[in-house]
Design a protein that fits this description.
- Chains A, B: Keywords: Chaperone, Copper, Copper transport, Ion transport, Metal-binding, Transport.
- Chains A, B: Belongs to the ATX1 family.
- Chains A, B: One of its GO terms (biological process) is copper ion transport.
- Two copies of one chain form a homodimer.
- Chain A is of the alpha+beta class and about 70 residues long.
- The first copy, chain A, has two helices and four strands.
- In chain A, strand 2 and strand 3 form a beta hairpin.
- At the A-B interface, helix 1 of A face helix 1 of B.
Chain lengths: ~70, ~70
């Protein structure tokens, strides 16, 4: 299991809801947290790569990048 | 050229921006308008079906349906 962190620009509950929906629908995600306050998304997965998950988040149309540790 | 209309739930500029980005990236779209105030999206295309466009909008994670005329 690997944990990945992303910075995602989300302005309202509709924005964070869209990211939540995308991660709910993404196969291979074991656990995730979307924080509108922190503008952060944390995802745990045993099978997906950092890039796979970033791609799924960006498909919602949100500006997203891998968070600096 | 056919014009399609959709009801899309968008709560803020980030939401409507995400839909705008998705339609900008969708090949076959000739013209479109995203209205946050009206919660409406209008798309003109010569090649895409009503369902193709609805699918692209829904991929942003927004609640969307074909508008009743």
């Amino acid at each position: 299991m690997t944990q990945y962190k992303y910075d995602v620009t989300m302005s309202c509950g509709g924005c964070s809801g869209a990211v939540t929906k995308a991660l709910n629908n993404l196969e291979g995600v074991d656990k995730f947290d979307v924080s509108l306050e922190a503008q952060k998304v944390t995802v745990e997965s045993a099978t997906l790569s950092e890039a796979d998950i970033l791609d799924a988040i960006q498909k919602t149309g949100k500006k997203a990048k891998v968070a600096e540790q």
